[in-house]
Amino acid sequence: MRGGYRARGVRQAGWSRTGLAAVVSFAYFFPVLWIVLTAFKTHNDALATPPKFIFPPTLENFVAVFRRSYIKGFAAVDTGFDLFFFNSIFVSAASVVLALIIGTLAAYGFARFPLRGTDTYLFIILTTRMLPPIVVIIPIFLMLRVTGLSGGYSGVMLLYTAFNLPFAIWMMKSFFDELSADVEDAARVDGSSETRVFLKVSLPQVRAGLAATAVFGLILTWNEFLFALLLTGVSTRTVPVAMAQTIGGDIGGRWGLLAAIETLFLAPVIVVTFLLQHHLLRGVTFGTIKR
Amino acid sequence: MSTISLRRLTKVFGDLVAVNAVDLDVGAGEVVCLLGPSGCGKTTTLRMVAGLETATAGDVLLGGRRVNHLPPRARDVAMVFQFYALYPTLTVGENLAYPLHADRLSASEMSARVARVSTLLDLGGILDRRPRQLSEGEKQRVAVGRAIIRDPSCFLFDEPLSRLDVQLRETMRAQLKEVLQSLHKATVIVTHDQLEALAIADRIAVMRKGVIEQVATPHEVFARPDNLFVASFIGTPQMNFLPAVLIGASDGGVRFRVGAQDATLAVEPSVARLAPGTPVTLGIRPRSLELVPVASARSLAARVDLIEPMGAETLVHLVEGGHELRVVVDHRVRVEVGSRVHVSPRPAQTHVFDAAERRVG
């Protein structure tokens, strides 16, 4: 089925355009390819000039990410990345789930029970995403310091939830707006309470929206560097911060190991995006494309 | 007892009075059609009965009990929506069973009810499908099934057949009528399709601009319209309206001046009591007119303007003195465009409306 799909694509676009698209994609993808290839190289291969594209692959870099191990020519190093990966996954997942729960409830409220000035509220919510985060970094740092939330998980988690919320509210509202009000009315007449209408009738209809919103939030949180740098402590550090700190440090010249960390860091985003690509398309177009 | 009563029911949206002091009683087992053009307030009225809109003023009584304050789920009504409003994420079987959850029935009782309704409406083969995999006709049947599964005290239908094509609509109309007769519950059907109303309803309430203009049996609404609006809204082709002036009682009828012609027409005897010189509007249905070979005191002359064959019958458009007159004749009758003909209304089929557009007699 996949082959048939691809063949039809080529037939419609023509070979020249398909070729051009391939060249452009290759240019975009080359850095990623470089990283992934380096992750499988031995230290000598990684440093070889001219760079090697054909080499005997090794998994020693990946093993080294999680295990204190001895790599030829280097002393044994504990990278600590098992903890950093756990931190990244835990912080991202928790803040995305939180943002999704709060955002979905808020969006349903805005969509179904409009208040006087609903549009103004929605606009104000969006304005929090209009300024570059670095502008507010000092007040936020102080706020979290004073409240004692700095350094632990809860501080970054709350912050990421707050960052994801405007987006979640706007996106989920656009999905709720698309639903037929009659269907919900039918459920009311059929004996449902408002809670049941929401849980059994409305929510199942926006599953695609939930998936899309989750992926966007996940990418945003997963890659976030600035606040993580300032607000996480040694034991709550996330991968982007840890990665930056390794450059020039202990791992410094060990490009293979760094590339392996990066490859592992890229993998979840690529896998999740690939799995949910159809929902994502609907998400970025804010539901204007009908399935 | 399953009855629906509306007492001076009113709904105002901003500056718009959508429903204006509507009074209506639907008896147990009675089917009443709310019939009117788009935007006349009929759907809003229905939604107030269901509890989906709050009445601005007036009362909704179900089974004699005032239910204004009750949410839809506590009113024990079932409603079929115009676009069916099936639950898109549930299968047909789950859609049918959905209203039963509120009644906390056992699983076996639920599946027994689903089985009964799916047999009745011939849904057995599609119970596992989702709404988007269904044809319009199937969606319609599922919507009806979901409404009747719970045995509520009354039924509300919003344009139940409007989305079906003509052929399917006729089949479904008959099927719906059969289902409604077997249910024997107070039922309100909203429709803009007079054929649907005439075919299904025990009584028809004709609405215009938020006001009920007439409530009567289909036959009476057709044969004795209360006012010009009802007369013009019911019946196809539309009734002819001729401005006329009453001259006075005459042999076997009342004499009118119509344009430049005089004619004696058989009308309600009470029309003769109007003062001579009273301006009136004569209403004559196209099927109540017949072509006559020669002019008489009871006929009007006119020129043939256009001929529309309609199959078994032919619709002939006549013009005279700036007024148009439509006559339905048998398809075998030959007339020619441009020729002059004489038409005469059949006895007692001329309606007379006064200057206030109300029926006289």
Which stretches of chain B of 5+ consecutive residues score pLDDT under 50? none
Counting DSSP E segments of at least 2 residues, the number of strands of chain A comes to 0
Bin the helical content of chain A: over 70%
> How much of the sequence of chain A is in beta strands?
under 5%
Rg of chain B, alpha carbons: 25 Å
Describe this structure in words.
The complex is a heterodimer of chains A (291) and B (361). Chain A has 15 helices and no strands. Chain A has 291 residues and is mainly α. Chain A has two domains: 2-66, no CATH class; 81-284, MetI-like (MetI-like fold, Orthogonal Bundle), CATH 1.10.3720.10. The two termini of chain A are 19 Å apart. The relative contact order of chain A is 0.13. By secondary structure, chain B is α+β, with helices and mostly antiparallel strands. In chain B, 22% of the residues lie in helices and 36% in strands. Chain B has eight helices and 20 strands. In chain B, the strands form four sheets. In chain B, strands 6-7-8-3-9-10 form a six-stranded mixed β-sheet, with helices on both faces. The interface between A and B is medium-sized, with 16 and 26 residues.
Index terms:
heterodimer, A: mainly alpha, 2 domains, 0% strand, B: alpha+beta, five-stranded antiparallel beta sheet, 8 helices, 36% strand
Summarize the structure.
The complex is a heterodimer of chains A (291) and B (361). Chain A is mostly helical and 291 residues long.
What is this structure's SSE topology?
The complex is a heterodimer of chains A (about 290) and B (about 350).
Chain A: H1 2-13, H2 15-39, H3 43-47, H4 60-66, H5 81-112, H6 118-127, H7 137-146, H8 153-178, H9 181-189, H10 194-205, H11 207-223, H12 226-231, H13 239-246, H14 255-275, H15 277-284
Chain B: E1 4-13, E2 16-26, E3 31-35, H1 42-50, E4 57-62, E5 65-66, E6 77-80, H2 92-97, H3 107-120, H4 136-148, E7 154-158, H5 166-183, E8 186-191, H6 194-200, E9 203-208, E10 211-216, H7 218-223, H8 228-233, E11 240-250, E12 253-258, E13 261-265, E14 279-284, E15 289-292, E16 300-309, E17 313-320, E18 323-330, E19 340-345, E20 350-353
